[in-house]
Amino acid sequence: MSVVYLGFHFTVEPKDPGTEILIAELGELPFESFVEQEHGVTAYIQQSAYEEGMVENLYIVNSPEFTITHTVETIEQVNWNEEWEKNFDPIDVDGKCYVRAPFHEKTNALYDIVIEPKMSFGTGHHETTHMMIQQLLEMDLVGKKTLDMGCGTAILAILAEMKGAQPIDAIDIDAWCYVNSIENAERNHCHHITVEEGDARLLPGRSYDVIIANINRNILINDMATYADCLAPEGYLLLSGFYVDDIPYLDAACQPFGLVFEKKWERNNWASLRYKKQ
């Protein structure tokens, strides 16, 4: 029996940064895929996972700063690849990293990454992934033992390997992300990435030179002690998945563990931070 999905077609005004904020909030619910449209975004969720009021209670939906309307469509089957291919455009990050689909032509970019996801998070489209790519581009990763926590499509782990990091652990709690990360690592001819399904409970006893964590504010704060314990002295912690207004909370969570702030990135109200362990 086929799985029945609901497609929520959102119109968002203003679209930027409203669409990105909406996707972030929906991403914390059981919505599985997002396709950005001209005036907003379409979000997909299994009908069995949807609960009445789930969308209406979102913070951004009730914010006076945005006007958000939506219609709902019942879909018997979703061809995710077809939906994605109709809307996916290649991403150029600072002229150095090019993220594309298999059906796009190869480029001469220093780092040419091929990703075939079923959702927009982790393709480079989302602000937080874009900033994390920028972070990695300016770092020396050669020989660095690296963790990509909440890896999604494993795009950041793939870039880390291209920049010389090894070995690399890529972990995500979502079973689909686990499978897709393995596929994308193979697609990019990576040989030093180990993909695992799970969360921070897998980490005790491990040690890393670089930890990449692009998740959300609450999970980052909750797991900060674990990250710090696994980070080697002089190691780097790269964080994203939160808004600019959340920075004080992340900073307060880092300070007790000897994590010293080094640099900040901002993009359409989203933030990314780099810390170094003393």
Would you kindly provide a written description of the structure presented here, covering whatever features stand out?
The protein has two domains: 5-83, Alpha-Beta Plaits, CATH 3.30.70; 127-277, Rossmann fold (3-Layer(aba) Sandwich). By secondary structure, the protein is of the alpha/beta class. It is built from seven helices and 14 strands. A hairpin with a 3-residue loop joins strand 5 (91-93) and strand 6 (97-100). The strands form three sheets. A seven-stranded mixed sheet has the order 10-9-8-11-12-14-13, sandwiched between helices. It has a four-stranded antiparallel sheet with strand order 2-3-1-4. Helix 6 (217-230) packs parallel to helix 7.
Can you lay out the helices and strands and say which pair or pack?
Elements: E1 5-13, H1 15-27, E2 33-37, E3 40-46, E4 67-75, H2 80-87, E5 91-93, E6 97-100, E7 111-114, H3 127-137, E8 146-149, H4 155-162, E9 168-172, H5 175-187, E10 193-197, E11 208-214, H6 217-230, E12 231-243, H7 247-254, E13 259-267, E14 270-277
Parallel strand pairs: 6-7, 8-9, 8-11, 9-10, 11-12
Antiparallel strand pairs: 1-3, 1-4, 2-3, 5-6, 12-14, 13-14
Pfam families: PrmA
Keywords: Cytoplasm, Methyltransferase, Ribonucleoprotein, Ribosomal protein, S-adenosyl-L-methionine, Transferase
GO molecular function: protein methyltransferase activity
